[in-house]
Amino acid sequence: MNIVASHRRQGPLAAIIRPRHASRYAPLTSWLLAFPLVATFATGFLYPLSKLVALSFANGAESYVRLLEDFLYVRVMTTTVATAAAVTVFCILLGYPVAFAMTRLRGKAALITAACVFIPLWTSVLIRSYAWIVLLQRNGLVNDFLQSAGLSDQPLKLLYTLGTVVMGMTHILLPFAILPIYATLRTLPPDFARAAANLGAGPFRTFFSITLPLSLPGLFAGAILCFVLALGFYITPALIGGPGSMLMATLIGQQTTVLLDWPFAAALSTVLLAVALLIVFLFRRALSLSKGFHSVH
């Protein structure tokens, strides 16, 4: 009774700050807790983004008209989206078995597998890109092996191709596909697989009927991470890619550092952002229609 009376004497301010339930915060307290995140998001993303869009219209719609009229820029955008899609597909195809194995392995095997996933993730992207140069250059390890084994009479051109860019980006982004899928697979109760086996389902039917549908949220998260990161990848395409494998990030960097055409670079960045948001929305819509977000873990 004394506690209730003391709360009543604190006035209307206490009613605003004090939560109505032990598991909930009052509106003012919730806004105060969320304010640092909201302020960081507004100053670090929304404000620069608005300035970028405004800069792209510094000369009116001239930059966007130029982008659409010149086939070179359309081809670079198409190549960027296709490359990002290919990298995402390879990351999912290679990452899903690894994530699935990580949930089944125990002891030293699990530790070694986790180390193979995390150690490259902790290594600089620049170092991993240069590692591909060491492997694939004309006097690199791969060409030396092919010539010593009699499989090639002269060094092959393995660097500065679009295929090399896809391979290098897949290697770098692979952990971003493995970890979300692993986190989802780890939460799946093993009773589901046992129940399916008791009902006569084999391993393949159990996987495609139970495990794969329930792991779609993690697969979606990994695919989105890989796709968005691949759209804006700069270091790896710049180091191991050639003129025929130029991507949007490289083109934007060229416009800002070499040609100093900031409005056109802003227009390219805005279009790239719009394409990324559109594809992410379509991907999410398609997955939600397939009941991927309504899986019961």
From TrEMBL:
<keyword id="KW-1003">Cell membrane</keyword>
<feature type="transmembrane region" description="Helical">
    <location>
        <begin position="110"/>
        <end position="133"/>
    </location>
</feature>
<keyword id="KW-0812">Transmembrane</keyword>
<keyword id="KW-0813">Transport</keyword>
<keyword id="KW-0472">Membrane</keyword>
<feature type="transmembrane region" description="Helical">
    <location>
        <begin position="28"/>
        <end position="47"/>
    </location>
</feature>
<protein>
    <submittedName>
        <fullName>Mannopine transport system permease protein</fullName>
    </submittedName>
</protein>
<keyword id="KW-1133">Transmembrane helix</keyword>
<feature type="transmembrane region" description="Helical">
    <location>
        <begin position="72"/>
        <end position="98"/>
    </location>
</feature>
<feature type="transmembrane region" description="Helical">
    <location>
        <begin position="158"/>
        <end position="185"/>
    </location>
</feature>
<feature type="transmembrane region" description="Helical">
    <location>
        <begin position="219"/>
        <end position="242"/>
    </location>
</feature>
<dbReference type="InterPro" id="IPR035906">
    <property type="entry name" value="MetI-like_sf"/>
</dbReference>
<feature type="domain" description="ABC transmembrane type-1">
    <location>
        <begin position="77"/>
        <end position="283"/>
    </location>
</feature>
<comment type="similarity">
    <text>Belongs to the binding-protein-dependent transport system permease family. CysTW subfamily.</text>
</comment>
<dbReference type="GO" id="GO:0055085">
    <property type="term" value="P:transmembrane transport"/>
</dbReference>
<feature type="transmembrane region" description="Helical">
    <location>
        <begin position="262"/>
        <end position="283"/>
    </location>
</feature>
<dbReference type="Pfam" id="PF00528">
    <property type="entry name" value="BPD_transp_1"/>
</dbReference>
<dbReference type="InterPro" id="IPR000515">
    <property type="entry name" value="MetI-like"/>
</dbReference>
<dbReference type="GO" id="GO:0005886">
    <property type="term" value="C:plasma membrane"/>
</dbReference>
